[in-house]
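PROTEIN DESIGN WORKSHEET
SECTION A - STRUCTURE
LENGTH: 354
TOKENS:
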């Protein structure tokens, strides 16, 4: 009963936050001479009115579910892993590299996904070890690795993954390792089922296993968790391991599941900022795997509708971004305040140790 009340309260808070965000964004639009009603009609009709709109929202949500899980798992353990961006790039490239093997179609995709998850883990290894053994802030180290990963990935694309027969093109993912398209004529592929399945597995891990309990205990009260025998270093490494897997898989969904070209260069730009967008999605979903699924679909719908709102409501792109930002900020605010409380508590604990 207590869990049900907490869930209903969280849902009510999210609905109220969304309403506040829409009202505030509406006032901003009105102040600049635009019609909020026309803007919102264009925004939501484009995203959820028909099959193609819903497919676009789900296609956008697919990688966001996975990158949001990267942040959410760490947040549940009291950590702030914002390295999904860099881990995604290497997951995408590893999936493409594995796609060049000559393997049976079903096995081929599984091998490519395994390579993607392993690459994400490898790129998260240094920040996790630094945090576990030296106490180096994971925020600083993951930000650094994001930029290193981004530029190294584009260097590899430009110099290693080029088409040997056409220098202006990159190699194309072989058909056997691609995610089949779910709705013809859209970007939605069967990768959406992978993302949802991973979210459900993470939910089971966090709330129905001893390991998940230890991770949540370490985030809720680190001192009590240590007193109870929870090894903080082990929790840190495990959190980054899981985050690396989900981020790497997110990269694979873009390089193996974005028709029509399935070329590396056309897939990589799709990855840009998805790691950071995942942080917002995680906070909207209250860092809960099930909440993240719905938050990602909502956020994906905002992304799809934003283009139509600009086209049909005549609103400049900059103003569209403002509207998106206000709505997302309002939805994420409750979880953001909780994170600030955790940071303040950590600062007090560090001050006490000194």
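SECTION B - SEQUENCE
RESIDUE ASSIGNMENT:
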């Amino acid at each position: 009963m207590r869990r049900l009340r907490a869930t209903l309260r969280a849902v009510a808070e999210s609905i109220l936050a969304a309403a506040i965000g829409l009202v505030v964004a509406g006032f901003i639009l009105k102040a600049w001479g635009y019609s909020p009603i026309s803007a919102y009609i264009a925004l939501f009709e484009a995203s959820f009115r028909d099959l193609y709109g819903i497919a676009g929202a789900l296609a956008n949500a697919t990688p966001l579910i996975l990158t949001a899980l990267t942040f959410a798992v760490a947040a549940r353990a009291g950590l702030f892993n914002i390295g999904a961006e860099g881990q995604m790039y290497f997951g995408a490239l590893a999936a493409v590299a594995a796609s060049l093997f000559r393997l049976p179609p079903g096995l081929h995709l599984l091998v490519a996904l395994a390579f993607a998850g392993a690459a994400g883990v490898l790129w998260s290894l240094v920040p996790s070890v630094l945090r576990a053994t030296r106490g180096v802030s994971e925020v600083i180290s993951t930000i650094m690795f994001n930029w290193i990963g981004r530029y190294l990935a584009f260097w590899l694309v430009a110099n290693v993954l080029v088409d040997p027969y056409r220098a202006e093109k990159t190699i194309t993912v072989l058909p056997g390792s691609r995610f089949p398209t779910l709705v013809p004529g859209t970007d939605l592929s069967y990768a959406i089922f992978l993302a949802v399945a991973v979210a459900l597995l993470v939910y089971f891990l966090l709330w129905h296993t001893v390991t998940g309990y230890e991770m949540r205990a370490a985030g809720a009260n680190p001192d009590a968790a240590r007193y109870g025998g929870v090894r903080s270093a082990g929790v840190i490494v495990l959190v980054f391991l899981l985050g690396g897997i989900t981020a790497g898989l997110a990269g694979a969904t873009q390089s193996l599941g974005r028709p029509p070209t399935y070329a590396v260069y056309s897939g990589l730009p799709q990855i840009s900022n998805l790691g950071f967008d995942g942080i917002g999605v995680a906070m909207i979903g209250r860092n809960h795997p099930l909440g993240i699924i719905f938050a990602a679909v909502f956020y994906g719908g905002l992304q799809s509708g934003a283009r139509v709102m600009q086209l049909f409501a005549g609103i400049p792109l900059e103003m569209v971004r403002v509207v998106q930002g206000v709505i997302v900020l309002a939805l994420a605010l409750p979880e953001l305040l909780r994170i600030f409380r955790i940071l303040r508590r950590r600062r007090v604990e560090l001050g006490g140790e000194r």
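SECTION C - NOTES
Residues 2-353 form a domain with the ABC transporter involved in vitamin B12 uptake, BtuC fold (CATH 1.10.3470).
The chain has one domain: 2-353.
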